[in-house]
């Protein structure tokens, strides 16, 4: 697997200069924010950004990726395609901002989900309480901005039902997440209320395993992989822009394509 985490050795900025037309095009299509740094670019693909052709490969893969999924143009009322059980990849493909052997499993007996912000029920939830809620299952495609995808079978609690349960102000702008591995994330309220946005606990009929976000992770059909936080520990409903791990480094926040 390509590791997207290459913090060392930032390249000469002149190299990106050669890619100005491509960069401009990606910015125009809102695929990159102004501030996408060279560091973020190298994280994005794991490519060696010291080699100009590889910078171009990276940018082209972002460009192609979007063209392939543009048909899904986000619409809060529209459902994304679903797939059949025979297409599901077991186990799923792993990604994080570090390698799989660095995953720190969450201790379910001590784990709680903290709920805060613009909600009437500001309590913490245990896993048993969450597991007792009605479940929804969906077989959807997971698309990582690095240019790979897989079909996965996720089940858990619809985020819209959970927001209703906690008395969330559904006119608020954002739902923000904190995770056990310091990967803050956030989505717009329309996406949070989308029927294919769930707090997932199971994958392909079994409890999600540690690398894939046990005990609780977000799965949405309408956003790229990096908008789906794993190992969630807190949910906040807010009107203050919360940003996110990759978003703060220049990746598009909406990422719904
Ligand atoms: N907590 C946390 N969630 C995360 C990440 C991460 O590094 N930490 N990586 C994101 C990225 S880039 C992708 S593609 C997906 C990968 O999910 P998977 O391992 O279940 O396929 O998780 C997303 N959620
Ligand atoms: Mo990703």
UniProtKB/TrEMBL annotation:
SUPFAM superfamilies the record matches: Oxidoreductase molybdopterin-binding domain (SSF56524)
Segments forming domain Oxidoreductase molybdopterin-binding: 104-246
Gene3D superfamilies: Oxidoreductase, molybdopterin-binding domain
InterPro entries tied to this protein: OxRdtase_Mopterin-bd_dom (IPR000572), OxRdtase_Mopterin-bd_sf (IPR036374)
PANTHER family to which the protein is assigned, alphabetical: BLL0505 PROTEIN, PROTEIN-METHIONINE-SULFOXIDE REDUCTASE
Protein name: Molybdopterin-binding protein
Species, as recorded: Lichenicoccus roseus
């Amino acid at each position: 697997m390509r590791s997207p985490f290459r913090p060392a050795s930032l390249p000469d900025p002149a190299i990106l200069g050669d890619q100005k037309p491509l960069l401009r095009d990606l910015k125009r299509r809102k695929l990159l924010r102004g501030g996408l740094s060279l560091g973020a670019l190298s994280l994005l693909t794991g490519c060696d950004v010291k080699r100009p052709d590889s910078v171009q490969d990276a940018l082209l893969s972002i460009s192609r990726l979007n063209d392939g999924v543009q048909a899904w143009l986000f619409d809060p009322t529209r459902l994304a395609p679903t797939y059949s059980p025979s297409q599901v990849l077991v186990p799923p493909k792993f990604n994080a901002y570090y390698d799989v052997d660095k995953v720190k499993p969450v201790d379910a007996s001590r784990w709680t989900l903290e709920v805060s912000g613009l909600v009437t029920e500001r309590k913490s939830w245990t896993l048993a309480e969450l597991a007792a809620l009605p479940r929804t299952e969906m077989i959807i495609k997971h698309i990582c901005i690095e240019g790979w995808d897989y079909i996965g079978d996720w089940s858990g609690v619809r985020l819209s039902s959970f927001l209703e349960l906690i008395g969330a102000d559904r006119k608020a702008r954002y739902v923000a997440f904190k995770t056990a591995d310091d990967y803050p994330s956030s989505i717009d309220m329309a996406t949070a209320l989308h029927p294919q946005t769930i707090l997932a606990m199971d994958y392909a009929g079994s409890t999600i395993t540690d690398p894939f976000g046990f005990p609780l992770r977000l799965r949405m059909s309408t956003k790229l992989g990096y908008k789906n936080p794993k190992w969630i520990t807190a949910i906040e409903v807010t009107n203050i822009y919360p940003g996110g791990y990759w978003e703060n480094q220049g990746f598009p926040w909406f990422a719904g394509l």
